[in-house]
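Input.
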Amino acid sequence: MHSQQRNAFTLIELLVVIAIIAILAAILFPVFAQAREKARSASCLSNLKQQGLATSMYVQDYDETFPIALYFSDIGAGPCTLLSYHAIIPYQKNADMEKCPSDAAPLKVDLALANLGLPPACGLTPKLSAVSYQPNYGVMVFTSVVPAPYRHAPVSLATLEYVTDTALFSDATVTKGGTATFPAPLSAPIQARHSTQANAIFADSHAKTLHAAPYLVGGVQVTGTALDGSTFQGYVVTGDGPYAAPANPFPYHLRGIPTKNAAGKWTLTNTP
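Output.
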């Protein structure tokens, strides 16, 4: 008498297999997500590296002076706004480098300028439509537009005592300012897009990742409104560098030129 061969799984066996697959998925999916974010962060660092190199080329071509953050021109059809980005784009030749792959909603440039009551961005090629990074407004300064205490003369490379510690661009957005949480005009709060980390490029053209923590007021993370009307969550730089508290009076952004006081402690100039 021949025994019958079984050609199918029992219900219990199927449920066990499904449970094992679910457990493996719960373990592996976060790992895959972290790996994808690592790849996006590396791409972001590469973008910032290219920005640093482009800025260095600009500085060498213009008497070792950094670009101005914002000023006006009349190119083509009428008044338009030039930004520090426009100064370095000819050296990059790719405006897409201004967008971080982890930034789902890069700042819309013309909408941001319109909300400030300023002319649209000058129509240079390639066109600058959206940005994920913001400059260090203590290095690429405002010479007009903002109130007098926040205006500075253009900065030369020779004035940077600690080149490797001076930020040029970072993962950030920009606000109008004038609020309790972001008081400085055109504040540039960092955006910790990479697993609570923000990328930055420094004046010697090296890029690195900065650790960050939520910007808390009363135990609640601060939110803000960017210049194009989008909302964001606030973060502050952590660690012991010049852009972390207490050296930085506004540790939510990388603004200012690092120096050291008589006690050898970090301090910042060009912050107000």
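The chain has three helices and 15 strands.
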